Every structure is written in structure tokens, then in C-alpha cells.
Amino acid sequence: MRARIRDTEIYFDVEGMGLVPDGPRMRERPVAFILHGGPGGDHSGFKPGFSALADRMQLVYVDHRGQGRSSKEDPSRWNLDENVEDLEALRQHLGLGPIVSIGTSYGGMVSMAHAARYPASVSHLVLIVTAAHAGFMARAQEIVAERGTEEQKQVSAMLWNGTLDTLEKVRRYYAVMGPLYSTTYDAERGRDALARTLHEPEALNRAFRPGGFLRSYDLRPELSRITAKTIILAGAHDWICPPEFAEEIHRLIPGSDLRIFANSSHSIRADEPEALYDAIKGFLVY
User: Fold this and answer.
1) Which domain holds residue 127?
2) Which helix (H) or strand (E) holds 29?
3) DSSP of 55-80
4) 83 near 110, Cβ under 8 Å?
5) Is residue 192 part of a domain?
6) Sheet containing strand 2-5, strands side by side
7) Cβ atoms 68, 11 nearer than 8 A
8) Residue 174 lies in a domain
9) Does residue 71 belong to any structural domain of this protein?
10) With contact defined as beta carbons under 8 Å apart, do 122 and 228 qualify?
11) pTM score, two decimals?
């Protein structure tokens, strides 16, 4: 489905019932927006795994502007602030009250900023493998230098210098870096996931290249404004959003909970999927 909001068209997909039979009445389930990472990816990596959540909430998978199946107008506006405003506009377009916001990696940055800037619009906030400021990049480079193979060091340098400028380069990057993103990385499964994903190299480079918008973002001064019930989920072996950044978010969001998955890297949904979905379900209590 597509929504024409603000100055763009956002693609979204819906899974699960919003109204369910409950004896003599119909009970309304909460609506969760599922926000993907990258930037430069799409929502496809959440399928079919996140279907495990559809018995508790109605899921709305969203592709950020300029990415996936959303419209590609005006690349100069493919950034965090615009993604936040798009999220709020989509919530209003769908006629929803406060939502459950589930953001992974870059999607977590968008979810976090949205919950801080529109606190009345979010009832529950789930932040998965994310960071609140640009410092994660320097730490990630240190970790690659410590743990990475020579090939991983080479392709990760392309992320930082903004030269992942073709689809082939992006796919090679994720194939080579796969064992760092996931402790249970399987090359065949990884190839299928890469083939399904609609990558957008320009969106990725606009974020990470020198002068890119993620080079200077800092949400820390805003986090005390978040009123949503919040849980932060991190992977103990995450190389790009290491767990110390989750611990920092936990300290800055009042009343938040934190869980670090001992056997996971950046892709908890690949490394410890059942534990991930159980944690989210257990957190969402109405």
C-alpha cells in the first residue's frame, strides 16, 4: 500500500488484524510501526520473522522515503529529520492514536527521534541495535580493525568514505561483512536476503560519507522528552552499534528497560529470534 504524505509517497505493508473477536465484542489491537535500518535498505528483512508478533499487534512495515518501494523524489531530503516527519504524517494519515514504534539500527534512530519530538504519538518504544549519536561510527571502525579480516577492513572503509555507490558494491559489502553482522551467519541464507532487499546506494552514502547526515547527529539532548514505555535491545557482539551505546540510551530515557543478548551481533533476529520476539511480546502489556 502507498500513502501520499507531505511531499512524497511512502510504501507500507500491513500484517495482522486490527480488530479481533473477543467473546461478545471486538477488541482493538495496538498498531506497531516497524522501521528498517540502513539507510538504503527496505522492510523485507523483517519478513517472515516478525510475523511472530502479529498475534499481539497489527504490524505496519514502512519503507523510508527514497528507499525500498517508497518514492525517490528529491534525494537532498533523504535524512533523519524528514524520516521523523514522514513517520508522524503516516500515523496521522492512517488515523491512528499512539503507536508502538519498533525501530532497528537506523530505524531505531528514527523511532527514538520521533518519540522524543512527538511524545504523545508513541505508547511503547522498542529500540533494537541502535545508537543515539554519531560516536558509534568511530567505535565501529575500531572494532573492525580489531576483529575484521583484511577484506572486511577494505569494504567497511568504503562505507565510511562514501564509495558504496553501486548496487554490486553494496551487495558485496553485506556479503563480506555478514559474519560480523550475525554470529550465526549463513552464506546461503545471506544471499537470499540480499536478493530480496531493494538496496539504494545513494541513501546509504548520504548518511555515512564524509559530511553525511549521520556524521553529526546527536539525539542525546532530546531523550529525556520520551514518555513512551521503552525497551532497548542490544547484541553483545554487535560491531556497528556496540552495546555500550544501548547502555547510554538506557541511562538517558527515564524508566527504560535494557536487555543485551549474549549470543547476538547486530542481527538479533537472525541470531536469537525466539528470544527477541519473546522479549518484545513480554514488553507489550496493555
Assistant:
1) 2-136+220-283
2) none
3) TTSEEEEEPPTTSTTS----GGG-SH
4) yes
5) no
6) 2-5, 8-15, 58-62, 31-35, 99-104, 122-128, 229-235, 257-261
7) yes
8) no
9) yes
10) yes
11) 0.96
Distance of CA 230 to the CA centre of its chain: 15
The total domain count for the chain is 1
Instruction: Supply the CATH number for residue 236's domain.
Output: 3.40.50.1820
Secondary structure of residue 271 in the 3-state scheme: helix
Q: Tell me how far apart the alpha carbons of residues 58 and 60 are, in angstroms, rounded to a whole number.
A: 7
CA distances (Å), 159 to each of 68, 170, 201, 267, in order?
19, 9, 10, 18
In tens digits, what is the pLDDT along the chain, a chain of 286 residues? Answer: 999 999 999 999 999 999 999 999 999 999 999 999 999 999 999 999 999 999 999 999 999 999 999 999 999 999 999 999 999 999 999 999 999 999 999 999 999 999 999 999 999 999 999 999 999 999 999 999 999 999 999 999 999 999 999 999 999 999 999 999 999 999 888 788 888 999 999 999 999 999 999 999 999 999 999 999 999 999 999 999 999 999 999 999 999 999 999 999 999 999 999 999 999 999 987 5
In angstroms, the CA 139 to CA 244 distance is 10
By the 10 Å C-beta count (0-12 exposed, 13-18 middle, 19+ buried), 261 is classed as buried
Q: For residue 231, what is its C-alpha cell?
A: 525497551
Does residue 250 lie within any of the structural domains?
Answer: yes
